[in-house]
Design goal:
Length: 557
């Protein structure tokens, strides 16, 4: 009875194995084989008899330890100073199948990564190497604390004598040849190495970009499945609206998505590239160079007067920071904002805001008349358009047509959430219409009349005050524009008292400077018309002329 029970248990075990075998599929279990190992701890006089030393001109090679700073990696353990003048032969029988594994590092930090090379039986010495069967190189380290790199050959060796060597100097710690009696068992080891090499292989990604904005000199950045970013070399022009790029050494057998497009011209164009649209552009990289990475940049106009950073998925990444490295840039352009960290600070995009550190300056482009409001994630001290500093979550400042930019200066640090420009309900209703000589009355002497014009579609003449500022160019100063704040110091204010001409749409008026001395007929005089409406003053263009020049223009008409 016990015997039957025992037999039943065996049958049950066999049945379980029969069920499990299909589930195992092609899973490789390393079969028993003979392993021949040579290590740096073994002198060549006592090496494994399976190996035959090929000196190639050298007479002896013994295990080495660190002898100087140049032997940086030999300190990991005793290693053999390998070079192209020596190697090891081994012989495999007719019904034997061998795989090769070599453990090695660069010996010197300055050395290039060498190849592990396997040649056939025609190998004689370094000059007569025979046929190269396999070689492999990775950018390995030369560091005594770094474990050796593992080189596994992608060949199965049988029925012959083969040579293991290196293309240049290396530190070799272990040479292992495993001999199998079944070819498939050796092939499984080789197949696994081929798969590993393919997963580590680096190839180039290149293509053509179609862009309505000049990308020359800019870059594109791709993100791999491992999250690593790879930036292209400088983009080159290939004709109208066409550009080429190349990203060196992306991983093979991986997907890369477009992460960013950078260009000085792109920033100046006030265009938006939504990150979600960039990320929709992706390429599957195989084991060969990918040359068809073509795409068109999807541009959108920057939302007028609003920079909303609450959702950064619509914005490309950007970062600039004051660094000790003098060569690091201290200014940059991001979505038409001019970023300046010359005196310190940092500007870096995040997920829902912009990190702005103390001393960061941001120049916001404006035109016409209105006000700028900056909103922050927390109360912070800032200065806007030169006004006194304010500590709050928002700061607002007015601007006029004299301002090309409104500057935000960070006194403290916070996260910038939004910049909003609110144009004035009334945009500039006054323009400068030139100058002429004043000749109505002789008793007024030499004079110049400066004309201004009001746009009556924008302003009611009954509710506004208009006039003209007049001054000497030498007193006003080169490049300076007169405002009502300068009256009494560098200019005078001639308030409009008479009209020259009026239509349904416009009203022309004038102001005159009279009794100009004969000695000052070539003195440059500047004038600028203005109108004040509801407490806001709008200015026209500022012109400069002399009496003699104005006379010449009138006489030529």
């Amino acid at each position: 009875m016990k015997l039957l029970k025992k037999a039943g248990a065996v049958l049950l075990a066999l049945a379980m194995i029969a069920v499990m075998l299909p589930q195992l599929g092609n899973k490789v279990v390393k079969a028993a084989g003979t392993s021949h190992i040579l290590t740096g701890d073994t002198t060549l006089e006592n090496m494994d008899t399976f190996f035959t030393y090929k000196p190639g001109g050298a007479t002896k090679l013994k295990p080495e330890t660190v002898s100087s700073t140049t032997d940086a990696c030999l300190g990991f353990s005793k290693g053999l100073k390998g070079n192209s003048s020596f190697g090891f032969n081994f012989t495999v029988g007719e019904n034997e199948y061998a795989t090769i594994v070599v453990y090695a590092n660069k010996r010197k930090p300055t050395a290039a990564a060498a190849d592990i090379e396997i040649h056939d039986s025609a190998y004689v010495d370094n000059t007569n190497k025979g046929n190269l069967l396999d070689s492999y190189k990775e950018e390995i380290a030369a560091d005594k604390n770094t474990p050796p790199d593992v080189f596994t050959s992608i060949k199965v060796y049988t029925n012959g004598t083969f040579h293991i060597g290196t293309s240049a100097e290396m530190a070799i710690y272990k040479v292992q040849v495993d001999v199998y009696s079944v070819q498939s068992e050796a092939q499984a080891i080789v197949d696994a190495e081929i798969e590993r090499r393919n997963s580590q292989k680096k190839v180039d990604l290149s293509g053509t970009i179609t862009s309505s904005i000049d990308l020359t000199g800019g870059t594109v950045t791709f993100k791999g499945t491992d999250g690593a970013l790879k930036e292209s070399e400088a983009i080159e022009s290939a004709g109208e609206n066409t550009y080429t790029y190349i990203v060196k050494e992306v991983k093979a057998n991986a997907e890369y998505i477009l992460d960013a497009v950078k260009s000085d011209k792109l920033a100046e164009a006030a265009k938006l590239v939504r990150k979600i649209d960039l990320n929709a552009i992706k390429f599957d990289i195989a084991t060969d160079a990918y040359t068809n990475g073509n795409f068109e940049v999807p541009y959108y106009d920057l939302p007028e007067n609003v920079w909303n950073f609450n959702d950064m998925s619509d914005w490309t990444t950007f970062s600039i920071e004051k660094k000790e490295d003098a060569s690091a840039p201290t200014t940059g352009i991001y979505k038409s904002l001019i970023i300046d960290v010359t005196n310190g600070g940092k500007f870096a995009t995040g997920t829902d805001s912009i990190q702005v550190n103390e001393k960061t300056r941001i120049r916001i482009p404006v035109a016409g008349y209105g006000e700028v409001t900056c909103t922050f994630s927390s109360s912070v001290e800032t200065k806007l358009n030169g006004n006194a500093s304010v500590k709050a979550t928002t700061n607002t400042a007015k601007f006029t047509s004299d301002d090309n930019y409104v500057e935000l200066e960070m006194i403290g640090a916070s996260n910038l959430k939004k910049i909003e420009i609110k144009p004035s309900a009334i945009q500039n209703p006054v323009i400068q219409i030139g100058a002429s000589v004043r000749q109505e009355a002789a008793e007024w002497g030499n004079g110049i009349r400066f004309g201004g014009q009001l746009d009556l579609t924008k302003v009611d003449k009954a509710t506004c005050t208009s006039g003209t500022l007049i001054g000497l160019a030498a007193t006003v100063g080169d490049g300076n524009k007169m405002t009502l704040e300068n009256v009494g110091t560098t200019c005078i204010d001639v308030v409009r008292t008479t009209f020259i001409e009026e239509t349904d749409a416009t009203l022309d008026y004038a102001a005159a400077l009279i009794n100009i001395p004969e000695a000052n007929l070539d003195t440059s005089i500047v004038a600028r018309p203005y109108v004040t409406v509801n407490g806001i003053t709008y200015y026209g263009d500022q012109i400069a002329t002399t009496y003699n020049n104005a006379t010449k223009i009138v006489n030529e008409q």
